[in-house]
Design goal:
The complex is a heterodimer of chains A (290) and B (283). Chain A is an alpha/beta fold and 290 residues long. Chain A has a single domain (18-287), classed as Metal-dependent hydrolases (TIM Barrel), CATH 3.20.20.140. Helices cover 42% and strands 11% of the residues of chain A. In chain A, the strands form two sheets. In chain A, strands 4-5-6-7-8-9 form a six-stranded parallel beta sheet, sandwiched between helices. Chain A has a three-stranded parallel beta sheet with strand order 1-2-3. In chain A, strand 1, helix 2 and strand 2 form a beta-alpha-beta unit. The N and C termini of chain A lie far apart (41 Å). Chain B has a single domain, classed as Metal-dependent hydrolases (TIM Barrel). Chain B has eleven helices and nine strands. Chain B has helices at 3-16, 52-62, 80-92, 110-120, 130-133, 140-152, 182-188, 203-209, 227-234, 251-259, 266-282; strands at residues 32-39, 64-71, 97-99, 101-102, 125-128, 155-159, 194-197, 215-218, 240-241. The chains are: A alpha/beta (290), B alpha/beta (283). Chains A and B meet through helix 2 and helix 10 of A and helix 10 of B.
Chain lengths: 290, 283
């Protein structure tokens, strides 16, 4: 036996392959890609590969910074604006494995609109990530978000919005709650939104988005609390849930077991682990050249 | 259930492993001791495995051969004699379960509860919930517990946390335990054996805890794809024990984390999954 052969706690390899897992929330070096415009990002992706291999993941979507002020590092921001290759480095190295969505800065609407054209309309990106902290964070009910959502909808992009309901209140004014996302989503009924982390405190998060049929919940970013997926399937239905791994800062164990160990049908697991996300990506994938 | 029935159950585990999604050839290969189980109901919501029979069925399906079980009733109940009696009676039904009684040293006659755990229920250790019971390591009462429990030869499990403070009920907020005083207390009580449950260790904490003899950790909330092997690399050999924190957390999560990065060899895995727990029991 080698460590790579071990399946303790996991479904069989055959079962995992049958799920066709697409990870919607892969977070290598999520807040800054590290020195030389991405060395830590590359190292973090490599660090995740044993787990993604064990899980038989087909695709992973990460969220690059594209030089519009989403980090606290002016030198990195400037270098990234000047050299697109820095942003594309992981995609060039793992073209079949990686998908990507840019981190957006709602505090700088002009730069964000330019980035949408450059990276979604003319580039390989499939959507956007609205962060919950850092210099790019802004509560999603802020009026700055409206022109951005409008443009993303025109480009058929996916919107991943970081959300948390924290006991004791927000960690900062830029953080969004699922209730705020529901408010934004009501203004754009034709656009679909992903409520990242299902609000963290998912009993409230699921309730907050339950009647917003254009909101899906993403499953990562909190402990492997038992009962989450069962409640999400019961309240939202299996088609409004998408899997995220949050690797490598979180683990395959925590994130995958939320779905594979849940008391739901194999068909529902298949939807959550990949099919729903592929469906969500279809409109923008159709706009991309093969 | 007797030993023969238990072994029959293990055989059933192997046979049914495919049904529950576990590779049949893997299930029987490891002896697995879960040092961080709880029985009964969490006060704030129902859990899929909060019935003992269901929990045991899951343990068997996962190949977990033993579980050290505390009681979730101990979080808020004040009649801890009854809580510990209920726990001992429930554990007696299942050969896999070892009861770990709870002590609340803010209650009168906690020494009586400790004595019953030791003499009547033959428990090898006791569990503390300082956060929910309202004391800290700085309180004199903690030192008294440490002294008394060490004299009886039991080990202590301290629940550093039960859940992420960010997701707690707004009227029942409990911060993670402050462990700053633990090194001094352990120095003052040589021979004490203390396992910290549900700690999500920060680097500075690991540096500090690794230097204290008698302090053990569990893996239930150790995060990151290589978090468990990294922790093992930083703590002295034998001081990290496998724990799931089921039924609050999904037990598969902790199991997968032990091997997902492919960094632990078979020998280290065997020690983590059972050997270190057996050594603590014998110490």
């Amino acid at each position: 036996m080698t460590p790579a052969d071990l399946q303790l706690g996991l479904p069989t390899s055959r079962e995992l392959k049958s799920y066709r897992i697409w990870d919607s929330y892969f977070t290598p070096s999520h807040s800054h890609p590290g020195p030389n415009g991405g060395d830590r990002l590359i190292a973090d992706i490599e660090r995740s590969l044993p787990a993604t291999g064990k899980g038989h993941f087909e695709k992973l979507c990460y969220f690059p910074h594209v030089g519009i002020g989403t980090t606290n590092d002016p030198a990195f921001e400037k270098a990234t604006r000047a050299k697109a290759d820095l942003v594309l480095r992981p995609l060039k190295r793992w073209p079949k494995m990686l998908l990507s969505m840019i981190q957006l800065n709602a505090n700088d609407v002009g730069a964000s609109l330019d980035a949408l054209n450059r990276w979604l309309r003319d580039g390989p990106m499939l959507g956007v990530y609205f962060p919950g902290s850092g210099p790019g964070a802004l509560a999603c009910t802020h009026r700055n978000c409206e022109p951005l959502v409008k443009r993303i909808a025109e480009l058929k992009g996916v919107i991943m919005q970081h959300t948390w309901f924290k006991t004791g209140g927000k960690q900062g004014p830029g953080e969004s709650t699922p209730s705020e996302l529901a408010e934004l989503a009501a203004r754009f009924p034709e656009q679909q939104f992903v409520c990242a982390h299902a609000g963290g405190e998912w009993q409230r998060g699921i309730r907050a988005v339950r009647t917003s049929s254009n909101i899906l919940v993403e499953t990562s970013g909190f402990d492997a609390t038992a009962g989450f997926i069962e409640m999400a399937v019961r309240e939202l239905g299996p088609r409004r849930i998408i899997f995220g791994s949050h690797l490598p800062s979180r683990s395959l164990g925590t994130e995958l077991s939320k779905i594979t160990a849940a008391n739901i049908s194999a068909g529902d697991k298949k939807l959550i682990l990949g099919e729903n996300y592929r469906t969500l990506l279809q409109p923008i994938l159709k706009t991309k050249k093969p | 259930m007797n030993r023969r029935e238990l072994l029959k159950g293990s055989a059933a585990t192997i046979l049914t492993a495919g049904v529950v999604g576990i590779s049949a050839k893997e299930a029987p290969q490891f002896n697995i001791i879960d040092t961080n189980l709880s029985l009964f109901q969490w006060p704030f919501r129902r859990l899929p495995l909060d019935g003992t029979a269901l929990l045991i069925r899951k343990m068997r399906a996962l190949g977990i051969t033993q579980g050290w079980a505390g009681s979730l009733e101990a979080i808020l109940h004040r009649d801890l004699s009854s809580v510990n009696g209920h726990l001992a009676a429930e554990c007696a039904k299942y050969p896999e379960l070892t009861p770990i009684g709870s002590i609340n040293p803010t209650l009168p006659n906690w020494r009586g509860d400790l004595s019953r755990c030791f003499r009547e229920h033959k428990m090898p250790g006791i569990r503390l919930h300082p956060g929910y019971h309202g004391y800290t390591l700085a309180d004199r009462t903690f030192a008294q517990v440490l002294e008394q429990v060490t004299k009886t030869g039991l080990f202590i499990q301290i629940a550093v946390a039960m859940e992420d403070p960010r997701t707690q009920h707004s009227r029942m907020r409990v911060q993670d335990m402050d462990l700053a005083l633990l090194p001094r207390l352990m120095r003052d009580h040589p021979g004490a054996r203390v396992q910290l449950l549900n700690l999500r260790p920060k680097r500075v904490q690991i540096d500090s805890l690794s230097k204290i003899p008698g302090v053990y950790l569990d893996t239930a909330r150790v995060e990151g794809t290589d978090g468990v092997p990294t922790l093992l690399g930083k703590m002295p050999r034998g001081r990290v024990l496998f724990g799931t924190h089921a039924p609050l957390l999904i037990p598969e999560a902790a199991l997968i984390r032990t091997h997902e990065s492919n960094r632990l060899d078979e020998k280290d895995l065997r020690l983590l999954l059972a050997g270190n727990a057996q050594t603590l029991l014998r110490a």
